[in-house]
Amino acid sequence: MNSYTSLPAFEFLVPEDTTFNSFRGCFSIKQSEFWFRIVFPDCPIKEQEEEEASCELSEDPACRSLEGAIFECDKELFRLTESHQRLIKQRFKQSQNLREFIRELREITEHAMTTAAQISFAFGELKSSSTKRSGKFPDINTQNRSPVSFRKLMAQLDAIGWSSIKSIDNNLSKLTVEMEDSNERKHQIRIIIPSTWPSDHARALMDIPVTKGEDPEDTKGGTLPSILRRCRSRFDTYHDFWRAVEDIDQHTCVLEPLNASRSCTTRRIVLQRHCSVQLEIDPHRPMGLCEIRFLGSEEFTGA
Questions:
Q1: Angle at CA 23, nearest 5°, toward 18 and 27?
Q2: How do residues 198-215 score in pLDDT, each as one tens digit?
Q3: Do 260 and 274 meet the contact criterion of CB atoms below 8 Å apart?
Q4: How far is CA 143 from CA 36, 83, 300, in A?
Q5: Pairwise CA distance, residues 155 & 42, whole Å
Q6: Which of 39, 179, 195, 207 is a good FRET partner for 276, with 20 to 30 A between their CA atoms?
Q7: CB neighbours of 108 closer than 8 A, spacing ≥ 6?
Q8: At what angle do helices 85-94 and 98-134 cross, to 10 degrees?
């Protein structure tokens, strides 16, 4: 009776007891060992057939059918392949025997390891760039996204350019991107990326003036670069508005707001002591008549 069964690529399988209904196995990838356990359903054996059947089961358990069997793995293998669990369960059901399944599992694990290495390298580049800018960088949690989602996200962040990314959270669900419009005004866009992206759309929040019925968010989806292109086009529609409020800020004494955001449509301007005027500017018709409200004592405002 063999004590273990040799499998290709440094894999082996060891029975846990003399019933040959449960086995513990291991395979190695890049000097890392991954352990798993397989439990076959109980196979009642008649007393007179026990010795013959036991020998048959022990000759090559890796070729036994997986019908009704249970698969378990160690914490490291589960952590690495967590996002592939549905695929692993599917392959487990489809494989004709344990040997075929282990080959499938090995390929899935190698793919996951390669993806993890790519992610680690990309995050190292981002961390280095971020440290140069601000000296801080969050510890990235890579468990909330599938490898496929990570690869797509990293490729699209590369396309945007890491120097444009001003902040990012440790779940890669929120990032702030800085970009210029066609008039070289700088804008910061906050992008929300769900854990189910790209199946579910990312959202972009812009600091822009909106009127009733308008939305400062871009929710149309698409790639991150395409979202940013739409944001830039939308910024350009407010060129006249921003030029108008910039002119007011430069040539008048503005009381409020002290540090106006791009979305702010009001300005309170000093006219004289104890008298000011508040303007409400239409972002779509900045050079047209605007709402005016005089503020101050009746002596100066005539109210």
A1: 145
A2: 889 999 999 999 888 788
A3: no
A4: 21, 8, 64
A5: 49
A6: 207
A7: 81, 84, 87, 88, 91
A8: 170
Beta bridge partners of 190: 176, 205
C-alpha–C-alpha distance, residues 102 and 117, integer Å? 22
20: its two tokens: 């040959």
Annotate 119-182 with DSSP letters as a single string.
HHHHHHHHHHHHHHHHS--PPP--TTS-HHHHHHHHHHHHHH-GGGEEEE-TTSSEEEEEEE-T
Cα–Cα dist 241/264, whole Å: 10
Q: What is the pLDDT of residue 16?
A: 84
**Residue in this structure with the two tokens 């196995």, named with its chain if needed:** 25
204: left (phi over 0), alpha (psi -120 to 50) or beta: beta
232: β partners: none
Model pLDDT, residue 114: 76
pLDDT of res. 242: 95
Cβ of 98: how many Cβ atoms within 10 Å?
A: 27
User: Could you tell me whether strands 32-39 and 70-73 are parallel, antiparallel, or unpaired per DSSP bridges?
Assistant: antiparallel
